[in-house]
Amino acid sequence: MGQLYQTQRAMRHMRKAAMQRGVIAILDVGTSKIACLVLRFDGDAPALDGVGSMAGQSNFRIIGAATTRSRGVSFGEVAAMAETERAIRTAVQAAQKMAGVRVDHVIATLSGARPRSYGLDGEVEVEGGQVTGSDIGRVLAACEMPDYGDGREVLHAQPVNFALDHRSGLADPRGQIGQRLTTDMHLLTVDATAIENLLYCIKRCDLEVAGLASSAYVSGVSSLVEDEQELGAACIDMGGGSTGISVFIRKHMIYADSVRMGGDHVTSDISMGLQVPMATAERIKTFYGGVVATGMDDREMIEIGGDTGDWEHDRRTVSRAELIGIMRPRVEEILEEVRQRLDAAGFEHLPSQQIVLTGGGSQIPGLDGLATRILGQQVRLGRPLRVQGLPQAATGPAFAGSVGLCLFAAHPQDEWWDFEVPAERHSARSFKRAFKWFKDNW
Asked: How far apart are CA 84 and CA 241, in angstroms?
């Protein structure tokens, strides 16, 4: 735990330094595309402290943007290092060229990697009657760490609620008077190898990593409107290789997960069903795809096309109803999986249960209706917030993660490595904790 805590702290310092220099890049390494956006910050950005999702709003604009077809990434994880490295270099160089500046620091997002969510809580007596930063460090240290297993790393550790004596729901208790401080913390762990591979790959591109975020989290930040983040909502980010799920309430993420299926699986079903190459299947899906068949679709014929040289084979047509018949079962399967994860997370207990679909895979016509039927809630299609300087081509749902990462770069939420957490915490040995509790209370 100690090592990652230090790595995350180092990244936070690097991010601050990069922002003072005024330029930072964000890198969305997905299964179907790699996007790089270069952000420029205004010199008069306000101080970036305070707990909360949009604390310390800072002004930035996008001055460079590029995307390239992803290579070597499957299920949202790096599978072929050299290919991914080449694709990242291509995207970063193109974005730098457009921006007219060189970028050394990037903040990256990670999808897939089998995320797991934990809710923790801790409590301490306030030293001196008024809550200080060190009290917050101590209360975060008092959270009982779960045994999350070998080969896992903590990606996010966010205090989502503070309570002082009997007042709960405090975003930032610093400076307030009280005796007993308690906190709830959301911890997200992922496969360590997935993080290590991504970090190593970015380092090989001569770039410094100044931050890492879960793509399910940043998609929610950019696609859920303020009321939804406040009252309770889930963001379903349908990517190429995986579908991210994040649940927000009181402007904090309280749960995240991912389903190892996405739009590419629909494409590969079409490719196998119609016996066409993946590129042709992708084109057919994009132009003619859908999940709800009407009487018209039996009569609408789609030319498959092809260049095998076999005239009969290349002149085939298929009705749109047949295409929908191939696509629908896979889309239903993805949504059923999502529903199981939301049920397991206790989503139905939230005061509001809005569901927002985003990501490139959410653009299939009729998807919102099918999702409403399977997920049984109000479902809407989400597009990311408008960000200054964002090219028109990057405003669609496929860029929810990229835009969310810009917002995360500009104003990250407090995580426990932003506080001086007492050092003996990291060993997590119960004897030490008991001793510390004794020292704190007597």
From this structure: 15
Short-list 65, 54, 76, CA closest to 99: 65
Phi, psi of 388 (to 5 degrees): -55, 130
Contact call for residues 278 and 303 (beta carbons, < 8 A): no
Q: What is the pLDDT of residues 349-367, one digit of tens each?
A: 888 899 999 999 999 999 9
Query: Containing domain of residue 308, as a range?
Result: 263-320
What is residue 428's three-state secondary structure?
coil
113 phi/psi in degrees, rounded to 5? 60, 20
CATH of the domain at 434: 3.30.1490
What are the E-state strand segments in 21-104?
A: 23-29, 33-41, 60-69, 73-74, 77-78
32: left (phi over 0), alpha (psi -120 to 50) or beta: alpha
d(CA 143, CA 426): 11
Angle at 182 between CA 349 and CA 224, to 5 degrees: 40
The pLDDT tens digits for 148-193 are 888 888 899 999 989 999 888 888 899 999 999 999 999 999 988 8
DSSP letter at 123?
Answer: E
Last residue of a domain, one of 304, 320, 336: 320
Asked if residue 437 is part of any domain, the answer here is yes
Give the chain's domain count: 2
Long-range contacts of 229-232 (CB under 8 A, 24+ apart): 229/53, 231/350, 231/351, 231/352, 231/354, 232/350, 232/351, 232/352, 232/353, 232/354
Q: Is residue 273 part of a domain?
A: yes
